Structure formats: structure tokens, C-alpha cells
Amino acid sequence: MDWGKFTSEALSEVQVRPVERSEEERYQEQMARHHYLGALAKIGETVWYVATWREQWVAQLSISAAALKCGVRDRWIGWDFRSQYGRLKLIANNSRFLILPEWHWPNVGSRVLSLTERRVVADWQARFGHPLLLLETFVDPRQFHGGVYRAANWIELGLTQGYRRTREGYSAEAEAPKRVFVRPLCRTPQVQLTHPDRAHLQLTGAAKIMLNADQMRQLPQCFTMIPDPRRAQGRRHRLPVVLGIAAGATLCGMRGYKAISNWADALGQKARERFGCRREKGQYLVPSESVIRDCLVRIEPDAMDGALNTWNQAWGTQDEALALDGKTMKNAIDETGEQAHILSVVGHDSKTCYAQKKSAPYR
């Protein structure tokens, strides 16, 4: 084909589809080789896409979780620091966009973005079970001017503050503000994203919270009576701090060790101070993912249950009624040869599990 005559007819043959599992190694290798930020691991809700022309790879995209904090985006939506929590999953980030070197031809980028927008809503619903209402992306003005997003009718909102994520949280000084672009995937996205009814947004479960300063200070105190199972040698973080951060992340909707660790990494210096984090060279440090995992798997469940009940009594919703639910655990035999029974007590209003105990068999 004469690449100098890449006509609109040829452009119409470009297609976009999710990357298959057998292609992921190729996708990552090319992203690492050609994208200025390198490859990006697949964490949480993420879909990788490839654009093809007659089976040849043209471009690669990563659509992943939205940024936790973005002032210009949140103001455009109309979110305050509480209402956006639990709704971030309705936004996804175009975290990588790579047009492969031999495919830098007019209109290829905007065509690929347009095709991705057409299918990502259905793909997201099918894979993750909830809608996607908005796409966002961040463009480094030192590298690009964002023309491909403007050509694809994305909306430029302004600049970030320029603070960079680091292992200790965020950089102390603003470095390189990024241009923020968004692309609505529905009508009136601001109205949808601020809708008060979670069921309307297909958001299941109880609404997640955002911790205030007093809650951050009190959470570690709930775990002070739990004995530390670790050896004294090599401890860098106090056990109540590790457990308090893990509990705080879970209350804020994080699931899994990686998500808890990422939430901890995103804490600012003030929040880390409130949790009682260790200070080193003028910076408050948070425990790593391995430290969080090690502590959680070694703590006795009954001790954790008692500590969390202390938190519930201080901050939880008051319940006027309790529900009791018991189950017999199939193939779970206790030391006496009986099948194990689990009894749970759950609050009607707060949906809090006040107790979950192994009980004696019914006679």
C-alpha cells in the first residue's frame, strides 16, 4: 500500500478490540519499547485495547482506574471530597495511548480514540458489572499538546497542580502540571455522576466513606491492645499504625493488599501524621504492601473483630434491630469431629457485622 495515500477509505478499515490474553506479552513489550512512560501493569479494573488494520497492529491503549484526586475534574463534575467517593469507578483513565512508529498518519489517532469510545461502555459493563460515564486523560505539555484528543472532541478542563506521585505520597513541590482532558460517554455526565441514588448508578453495596482527621487519629488506637506477632528486630512500623491504615483503606472501599497499599501510598503527609506513621528525614512513611500483608495474615481474627467493634461503637451507625444468620460449613470439621457452624450478627441499618463466631453444633 502507498502510505502516502492513506485515504479515508483505508482509515475506515481500522478496528479496535480488546487485547487477548495470548497477546498481552506483545502488548507490554511494545509499550515498554515505544511509549515514553513505559509499560503499565494491569491493576484493578483495566482493559487493554489494540487497533488493527488488516491484522496489523496500529495503536495500543490502556483504559484503567481513574485518578483518585484531580481538582479541575472534580470541580467540572460538581463533586466535593465526600460525594466523589464510591463513584470514581464510573470514570476510567486513558492511562496509555501509543500509536506505533510506522503508523503516524493523519487522523489515525482520532479514529482510534473514536472507535474505543464506541465500545468501551459495553466492554466495561460486561467485564466489571457497572456503567462507565466518563473518560479522562492527562497530557504532559512538555511532550505533547493534546491535539489528538481535541480532534476526537475531548474537552480540555485545565491543568493539574503538578504534584507527582512518589513512594512517600506526593512530591513536596509542584513539578510539571498536566493538561486534563475528559470525554463524556453519556448525556449530562455531571448530572449522572452527582445523582444521589446509588441504585440509579448501578452501584451496589453500602456507600464508602472518606475518613476525616479525627477518624484517622482514632483508628490506630483501636488496635493498641492487639499483641504484635512479629519479632522486635526489624520492625519499622508500629502494629496499630499498620492495622489502622489497612482498616481505613478498607472503609474507603479498597479491596486486596495491592489496593490497600496504593491507598496508603496516596496519603498526604498530614494524613500520615494523623495515622501516627513513622517519620524519617522529615517525611512520614507508610508501610509497604508486604508489611501490610504480613501483619494481616498473622493477627488472630477474634482480636481484629474486637478492635473493629471498638471502632463501630465510636463511629458506626446506630442500629435499632439486629439480624442473626447461621451457616453450616460444608466439609469443615472441627477438632471434635463435628461440622463447623458460623453465627453472624448484622445490623439492619448500618449493615455492620458485629460478630462472627464459630458456634457449637445444634442438637
TrEMBL record:
<dbReference type="InterPro" id="IPR032806">
    <property type="entry name" value="YbfD_N"/>
</dbReference>
<dbReference type="InterPro" id="IPR025639">
    <property type="entry name" value="DruA"/>
</dbReference>
<protein>
    <submittedName>
        <fullName>Transposase</fullName>
    </submittedName>
</protein>
<dbReference type="Pfam" id="PF13808">
    <property type="entry name" value="DDE_Tnp_1_assoc"/>
</dbReference>
<dbReference type="Pfam" id="PF14236">
    <property type="entry name" value="DruA"/>
</dbReference>
<feature type="domain" description="H repeat-associated protein N-terminal">
    <location>
        <begin position="221"/>
        <end position="311"/>
    </location>
</feature>
